[in-house]
Write a structure and sequence with these properties.
Helix content: 25-40%
Oligomer: single chain
Number of helices: 8
Radius of gyration: 15 Å
């Protein structure tokens, strides 16, 4: 086991935790929702200073892991965005392109898997249902409440399994 394998893990969501998605919400407000445009606009997300500061502070003691509901097809753009923000390298867990389960189910499944072999110090996420389920499962949670909640994004996360 290497030293990095002994460090606890800090898990960070991306959308509305580290990345401000407000400029692309308009793609979810139309019917039908334009998911391709929503995700295509992600590279233009401004960073959220509160989330960025928390990642950088956590990286001093923890290995950083990113856990997002974004589909796997967004991996290249996501990795480029993380690097452009100067964020620590870390594993990025994304949903399969065809996975439409609620975010709270997909994320909790990954958290439990990570927690079998490593201490998870904290999960930082903006989704209240993800946070509540993670807390109920025994994980320490920081709710990312530094952006205005989006009703459309909540429906997308919970009912449509899209992010």
């Amino acid at each position: 086991m290497t030293d990095s394998d002994k460090r606890p893990i800090a898990v960070f969501d991306l959308d509305n935790t580290l990345a401000d998605t407000s400029h692309r919400q308009r793609f979810l407000e139309r019917r039908p929702r334009d998911w391709d445009a929503f995700f295509a606009a992600a590279p233009e997300d401004p960073p959220l200073p509160e989330g960025i500061a928390l990642v950088l502070a956590s990286a001093e003691e923890c290995e950083i892991v990113y856990l997002t509901g974004r589909p796997e097809r967004c991996r290249r753009d996501t990795l480029a965005w993380l690097a452009a923000q100067g964020l620590p390298e870390g594993r990025v867990h994304m949903r399969r392109n065809d996975d439409r389960r609620p975010a709270r189910r997909t994320k909790l499944e990954i958290l439990k898997r990570l927690g079998r072999t490593r201490e998870i110090r904290v999960l930082v996420d903006d989704d209240e249902l993800v946070c509540a389920d993670a807390e109920q499962a025994g994980f320490a949670v920081v709710r990312a409440r530094w952006t205005a909640p989006s009703a459309e994004l909540k429906v997308a996360q919970e009912r449509e399994g899209r992010t």
